[in-house]
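ESCALATION

Customer reports they have been waiting on this structure for their group meeting. Please prioritize. Original submission:
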Amino acid sequence: MAADLSQIVKAYDVRGVVPDQWDETLAGLFGAAFAELTGASALVVGHDMRPSSPGLSGAFARGAASRGADVTEIGLCSTDQLYYASGALGLPGAMFTASHNPARYNGIKMCRAGAAPVGADSGLAEIRALVEGWTATGAPEPAARTGTLTRRDTLADYAAHLRSLVDLTGIRPLKVVVDAGNGMGGHTVPTVFSGLPLDLVPMYFELDGTFPNHEANPLDPANLVDLQKRVREEGADLGIAFDGDADRCFVVDEAGDPVSPSAVTALVASRELARNGGTGIVIHNLITSRSVPEVVEANGGTPVRTRVGHSFIKAEMARTGALFGGEHSAHYYFRDFWNADTGMLAALHVLAALGGQDGPLSALVAQYDRYAGSGEINSTVADQAGRLAAIRAAYEGRDGVTLDELDGLTVTTADWWFNVRSSNTEPLLRLNAEARDEATMRAVRDEALALIRG
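Update from on-call: job pushed to the front of the queue and completed.
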């Protein structure tokens, strides 16, 4: 009987508990299927610091080699370092990580040459079908030629590429606390930051996929507490937190207060537009702050609004030739990084902006943080479609209200907006609301929640 991979093959990646849901045998079949799908004569593979990552990554590499592909193994790396290798070497790539998930999990993020994503509608479904078929009938016969396995270190080249995109040589000295969460930021930050006028205070840089200090998920405020406390204790200029595979970065100011990813998006957008002559397209998803398109337009750019999710952002980046894209989840995408997301490059932009002027970070980002936001609020709802219909009925026809269904339902007026979206994997409705002031936001949020929860 063929293995049922429905629980581990997601919309954008493979992810599950090791060895309960998948193991090195399956990893080898995924490698063979990836080589088969891409038809590539060569590919690149990297992995994070989880205990299961080296074994899974090695099995995947051998599986791909069995189909004739020459495999470059770059070993320990961040996800954006794997994207760098895919882009710079012009090879399809596979990254073994489960990002911020607990230690028992692992996964594979796959891309075509140039870091172009592989998702359910761009090859992942075909990979799943091949693996399921082979588990039923046995692995395919080896190719006429077995590919080679070669080791290569790309960390220095990755760092040099990022540093070539942001000039930090002339900034004033900054004291920065970095919380790597025992994830891959502990591997990349020392090399990327080397030689810069930065007084680096490292936190949890020891690579440990059991996450002994806190989850490597800075989107949860509980995981920022240590960083916030240390920034205040050190009198630092800012703090930066990376998630487990270090493709997302979160920023706190000199007081330890979180800087919203929308404010970071607006700040980086203004810098990327200036670097490109004050013109260009910037992508933002529909639940980033209204300040993002306002800042883009004020700096000569054209904002383009998309659905939530990196596959939609990356598709729009490629379609429009956009300079930059940002999401509320702290994923930041750059044309000069093969349209892929890199939290490290966003962090360098924040450091350059802060170090290029004399004020504190809180004052710098205030111009980009103009509205009161609710953050994302999840509600368990059995009949998601029914509740969305009820919300639409409640607001349809009101004066000054517009509705759109680009992603869930967005209700907009001159003074406030909110969006309600269904989860793809759970019986949840997700609410995000924003208004010109805190009192209005709370009123809008509470009215929407009353409708959501019936």
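Sent to customer with the following note: The mean pLDDT is 96.
Escalation resolved.
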